[in-house]
Write a structure and sequence with these properties.
The complex is a heterodimer of chains A (291) and B (245). Chain A has 291 residues and is mainly alpha-helical. Chain A is built from ten helices and two strands. Chain B starts with a helix and ends in a 17-residue tail after the last helix. The chains are: A mainly alpha (291), B mainly alpha (245). Chains A and B meet through α2 and α4 of A and α2, α4 and α5 of B.
Chain lengths: 291, 245
């Protein structure tokens, strides 16, 4: 190791290191840097005292401020709840139709319902309730499978359709073809009849009509107007849940009569609070003109 | 003191020992409290080991790299709790080896996706996400509609048991039966798999006969896993201020 010497130009000592004749100056750290360093050390000691910091045997030092991010969240949520209470408590207390009649409440419920719908319902029913052809019903029209009144919609949201909830809406159409209840030619005939009914020109007196009256009318109605209590959709219009662009209406009806597909929807009562469900019911009811 | 520092700096042996000591002490101070502090894992009821089908689904989740775009960690922030539900507890992933908290959200958080959508929706969405979410940039996972290989499911459960997941001998012995039953049984018939694994989502991912003909598919496993995420703890019965860290 070389010796420490004084540099004649700067007046600083060298470090005593030397590589290939190059020596290093031992310039001290700037004063401001040293002060900041010691300030952070002092800050750290204060932090240990104020905030949760050191582990102990089975726990940790909680700090005199007792900070916890989860407690912090509780406070934030409580503040938010208090901030919204003015409106939410009114919605909570009001009957669904009273919410719709009160302009201000309706506006609030629609805004809240829209957000909840986007996060929870939109994945299937699409933004604004447009639905998915061949899979999920459009909510932005006035055609309802399980009923379009406010109470009907609320019940559907709460308990779902063929869901795991004990109070779920449930019904099952028989597999007329697959279980041999109808012969293939009967299925063809009744499919023709249903398609004619859908175009508002039911083929009265056709062989399909007899099959329809005997097997289908009990749920879907003599005139095909459906029965919301059973989740039996109306057949006297051209709104089909399971029709895709590829299949013709008749093929789709025949497939449904043969071995029906059944839609399902989760129950939301355990996931969303009652007020949110109310806002959702109002929102959905207002999307396309509920009954 | 600083005089002797030069000795350490110029002697590779002292330097190596010094570095080792520093890293060991630093590491132990970080790791030991996680085992010794009682509140690290909250005491909540309901968290159970994954059913064999869910475990197989979880393996697919890891294999396909779902964690690259989806987190499973609802942080204790107002906006996250508002959107996803109660914040994630450490207890909820105590049987995850490794945990799937993730660190990136290209897609939404999945910590509480269980029960949010139907199996049928998950199937459709996995095959082609754009069919149900028009703006989605998630890739399709159509290839999961193939037979699930679950020959090693018992070994998988044993490996988990070796690192602390409390699978019983009976659960391991019944693994294949439970796995098949969770897909094929009628949920209303209260199948035995539910006794071993409460709240398991029973049923196939798709009713399509062509899919069912394949037997238990990878999609069935993945959907069963997704459907149980975040559903084990009943937050109506948990006082979060009591389990708080």
């Amino acid at each position: 190791m070389a010796t420490i010497e004084k540099d004649s130009v700067t007046g600083q000592s060298t470090t005593g290191h030397e590589w290939d004749g190059i020596k290093e100056l031992n310039t001290p750290l700037p004063k401001w840097w040293v002060y900041v360093f010691w300030a952070t050390v002092v800050w750290a000691i204060g932090y240990w005292i104020a905030m949760p910091a050191w582990p102990t045997v089975n726990g940790y030092t909680k700090g005199v401020l007792g900070y916890s991010s989860r407690a912090d969240l509780d406070n934030e949520l409580a503040l938010q709840k208090a901030g919204r209470a003015a409106w939410l408590s009114k919605i909570e207390a009001a009957e669904l139709d009273a919410i719709e009649k009160d302009k201000d409440l309706l506006r609030y419920a629609m805004a809240g319902g829209k957000i909840a719908f986007g996060e929870n319902c939109g994945a299937c029913h699409g933004t604004g309730g447009v639905g998915v052809a061949g899979a999920y019903p459009t909510l932005a029209d006035d055609e309802w499978i399980w009923g379009g009144t406010l109470a009907d919609i609320e019940q559907t949201i709460k308990f779902g359709i063929r869901s795991t909830h004990a109070e779920t809406r449930v019904s099952e159409m028989p597999k007329f073809g697959a279980d041999g209840l109808l012969k293939p030619e009967q299925i063809a005939a009744v499919s023709d009849y249903v398609v004619s009914m859908a175009s508002r020109a039911p083929a009265k007196g056709s062989p399909g009509e007899a099959v329809y009256v005997e097997n289908c009318a009990v749920c879907h109605g003599e005139d095909g107007s459906g029965q919301a209590a059973l989740g039996a959709p109306a057949l006297n219009n051209q709104i089909w849940l399971f029709k895709t662009a590829k299949a013709s209406a008749k093929d789709m009806v025949a497939a449904q009569v043969n071995a029906p597909k059944h839609g399902s929807m989760p129950a939301w009562a355990d996931r969303l609070d009652p007020t949110t469900i109310k806002m959702l019911a109002v929102y959905v009811h207002n999307l396309g003109g509920g009954k | 003191m600083f005089k002797h520092h030069a000795k350490i700096e110029t002697n590779i042996f002292f330097m190596a020992v010094g570095i080792l000591l520093t890293v060991v002490v630093g590491g132990l101070v970080e790791v030991i409290p996680l085992f010794s502090i009682e509140s690290t894992i909250e005491k909540v009821k309901g968290v159970r080991p994954y059913s064999p089908l869910e475990l197989a689904g979880r393996n697919i989740y890891v294999r396909e790299g779902c964690y690259n775009c989806h987190s499973q960690m609802i942080r204790p922030f107002k906006d996250e709790v508002e959107r996803y539900g109660p914040y994630s507890l450490a207890a909820e992933s105590k049987y995850d080896h490794p945990f799937q908290w993730g660190s990136k959200r290209t897609g939404p958080d999945l910590a509480r996706v269980g029960g949010k959508f139907t199996n049928e929706w998950h199937f459709r969405h996995m095959v082609n996400p754009r069919d149900v979410v028009p703006g989605s940039i998630m890739p399709g996972y159509k290839h999961l509609v193939r037979k699930l290989d679950y020959a090693t499911i018992e070994a998988d459960m044993k490996a988990n048991r070796a690192v602390g997941v409390p699978y019983t001998d009976a659960q391991i012995a019944n693994a294949k039966k439970d796995l098949e039953e969770q897909v094929n049984a009628d949920p209303a018939s209260n199948p035995a798999v539910l006794a071993s694994y409460p709240k398991a989502h029973v049923g196939p991912s798709s009713d399509d006969p062509k899919v069912r003909a394949l037997g238990v598919t990878e999609m069935d496993a993945l959907v069963a896993y997704l459907q149980v995420l975040g559903t084990m703890v009943d937050f109506k019965t948990v006082d979060l201020s009591k389990v708080r860290r």
